[in-house]
Amino acid sequence: MQLARFRHPLLAAVLAILPAGAFAVGSDDSSPPTQTQTTTVCPKGQVWSDKLKACTMPEDSRLDDDTRFRAVRELAWAGRPDDALAVLATMTEGDTDRVLTYRGFALRKSGNLEGGLAAYEAALKQNPDNILARSYFGQMLVEMNEVQLASLQLDEIRARGGAGTWAEQALATAIATGVTYSF
């Protein structure tokens, strides 16, 4: 691969250091998030807790990270990436590849491509088999008109056992049509 030919030198450098490794499938959440009171009732900055049956601040210690993560996905899908980032900042599990994947997604959707790139790189460094991170990263590359680089991510998804998954289909569609996903 001749990385010097790519339009974005930072992307070329990232792709050069991304690990290639085992072929296990990473996480792949394929359905749009279910809309809840987080986006229909709660004031800005709050999330819905089924456990509490109320809106609460995302840093509330009674919330678990899975509840926060569902709110992040819902907020991102609703076109509120800055709110999604605020909830991600309260996650207690730290910078896991799932948190980094959605940080990359929310940063990308907020227009911060450099931040999105760094988050996807960190997610894939932790878990090279995270096919969802690869799909979102590839979709960012499509948005940047870097279709060849996006195709490399599609190849990686397939090589890591992701053929037939939403991650593969979403990226293949993005490459073919230029349309990317918001969840």
Structure summarized in a few sentences:
This protein is mainly α and 183 residues long. It has 9 helices and 2 strands; from the N terminus they run ααββααααααα.
Order of helices and strands: HHEEHHHHHHH
Shape: elongated
The biggest beta sheet is recorded as: 2 strands, antiparallel
For the secondary structure, the number of strands is 2
- Mean pLDDT equals 85
Strand content: under 5%
N-to-C CA distance: 31 Å
Number of H/I helices: 9
- Measured as a percent range, the helix fraction is 40-55%
Q: Which spans of ≥5 residues are poorly predicted at pLDDT below 50?
A: 1-6, 9-28
Strand order, sheet with most strands: 1-2
Q: What is the alpha-carbon Rg in Å?
A: 16 Å
The secondary structure category is mainly alpha
InterPro entries: TPR-like_helical_dom_sf (IPR011990), TPR_2 (IPR013105), TPR_rpt (IPR019734)
Signal peptide: 1-24
Protein name: Tetratricopeptide repeat protein
TPR repeats: 97-130
